[in-house]
C-alpha cells in the first residue's frame, strides 16, 4: 500500500512528538510545521494525505491556514484546538475543515479519525468509473465519476464533505435521514456532539444550491426527524 503522509501543524513541540510517535506506529510518514506560514509551505511541498491543524498558531492562525489551503487542495483537514466553544467549531467547519477535535483528546480517537479520513479519501481516488450518466434532481446535476455537481448548468464549488453529503442524499432521494444516521453514513464514525456538524454542512449546501436558502426547494428539513433531498 502506498505510504500516506500526515502533516502535523502545531506549535507545542511536546505534543508534536507524541503525535509523531502514535501516528508513526501506524506506518504513516510524518511531516511537521510549527507556525501558519510554514504550514502552507510544507503542505505545498509535501502534498500530505491528511492535515492535523492546530487553531492557535504563531504568525497566522489555523483558520486562516485552512482558508488558504482549501482554495488550493481538497486534502482532508482536522482542526485541533484547546477551544471548546461551538462558535469555534462552526467557524472551522465553514471554512472547509473536515473534522474538529478538542484538546485534550484521546490518541486512540485521533488515530481512528485519521484512518477514516484516509479511507474515504482513498475510496474517492480509486472509485471505479461509472457510466457518464449524471444523477439529476431537478436542476441539480451530480457527476459521480468526476465528483462534481452543478445547478442550472453552473458548476458548484463544493468541499469533499459537502459533495459526499449531497451525493448520499441524492442517491437516496426522498428518504429522510436523522443527523446521527448522516454522521454514520457520510462522516463514517460516531462523532459525539457532531450533529451540529451536519446542520452546518446542510446550511452551507443550501447556500450553494438553493435560490433562497431560507425557503429551500431541494434540501428539506423534516422537523423532529432530519433531512432529505427532493426536487
How does this structure look, described?
With 231 residues, this protein is of the alpha/beta class. It folds into 2 domains: 5-126, 3-Layer(aba) Sandwich (Rossmann fold); 135-229, Winged helix-like DNA-binding domain superfamily/Winged helix DNA-binding domain (Arc Repressor Mutant, subunit A, Orthogonal Bundle). The protein has 8 helices and 11 strands. A 5-stranded parallel sheet has the order 2-1-3-4-5, sandwiched between helices. Helix 2 (36-46) packs parallel to helix 3 (62-72), helix 6 (160-171) packs across helix 7 (179-187) and helix 7 crosses helix 8 (195-209). The protein is elongated. The chain starts with a strand and ends with a strand.
What's a quick, concise take on this entry?
By secondary structure, this protein is of the alpha/beta class.
Low-confidence stretches: none
Oligomer designation: single chain
SS class: alpha/beta
Mean pLDDT comes to: 86
The total strand number stands at 11
Helix content: 40-55%
- Strand proportion, as a percent range, falls in 15-25%
The CATH architecture of the largest domain comes to 3-Layer(aba) Sandwich
Total number of domains: 2
Which geometry do the CA atoms define? elongated
Rg, Cα atoms, Å:
18 Å
CATH-defined superfamily of the largest domain? Response regulator
Largest sheet strand order: 2-1-3-4-5
How far is the N terminus from the C terminus?
41 Å
Layout of strands and helices, then pairs:
Layout: E1 5-9, H1 13-24, E2 29-33, H2 36-46, E3 50-54, H3 62-72, E4 77-81, H4 86-94, E5 99-102, H5 107-126, E6 135-137, E7 140-143, E8 148-151, E9 154-155, H6 160-171, H7 179-187, H8 195-209, E10 219-222, E11 226-229
Parallel strand pairs: 1-2, 1-3, 3-4, 4-5
Antiparallel strand pairs: 6-7, 7-8, 8-9, 10-11
Amino acid at each position: 500500500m502506498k505510504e500516506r503522509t500526515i502533516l502535523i501543524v502545531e506549535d507545542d513541540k511536546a505534543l508534536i512528538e507524541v503525535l509523531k510517535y502514535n501516528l508513526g506506529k501506524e506506518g504513516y510518514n510524518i511531516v511537521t510545521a510549527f507556525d501558519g506560514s510554514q504550514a502552507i509551505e510544507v503542505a505545498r511541498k509535501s502534498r500530505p494525505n491528511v492535515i492535523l491543524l492546530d487553531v492557535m498558531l504563531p504568525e497566522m492562525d489555523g483558520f486562516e491556514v485552512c482558508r488558504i489551503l482549501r482554495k488550493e487542495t481538497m486534502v482532508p483537514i482536522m482542526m485541533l484546538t484547546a477551544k471548546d466553544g461551538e462558535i469555534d467549531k462552526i467557524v472551522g467547519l465553514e471554512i472547509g475543515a473536515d473534522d474538529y477535535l478538542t484538546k485534550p483528546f484521546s490518541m486512540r480517537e485521533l488515530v481512528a479519525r485519521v484512518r477514516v479520513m484516509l479511507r474515504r479519501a482513498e475510496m474517492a481516488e480509486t472509485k471505479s468509473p461509472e457510466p457518464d450518466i449524471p444523477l439529476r434532481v431537478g436542476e441539480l446535476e451530480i457527476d459521480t465519476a468526476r465528483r462534481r455537481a452543478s445547478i442550472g448548468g453552473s458548476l458548484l464549488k463544493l468541499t469533499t464533505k459537502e459533495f459526499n453529503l449531497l451525493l448520499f442524499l441524492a442517491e437516496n432521494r426522498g428518504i429522510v435521514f436523522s443527523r446521527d444516521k448522516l454522521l454514520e453514513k457520510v462522516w463514517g464514525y460516531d462523532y459525539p456532539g457532531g450533529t451540529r456538524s451536519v446542520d452546518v454542512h446542510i446550511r452551507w449546501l443550501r447556500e450553494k444550491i438553493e435560490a433562497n436558502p431560507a425557503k429551500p426547494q431541494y434540501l428539506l428539513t423534516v422537523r423532529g426527524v432530519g433531512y432529505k433531498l427532493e426536487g
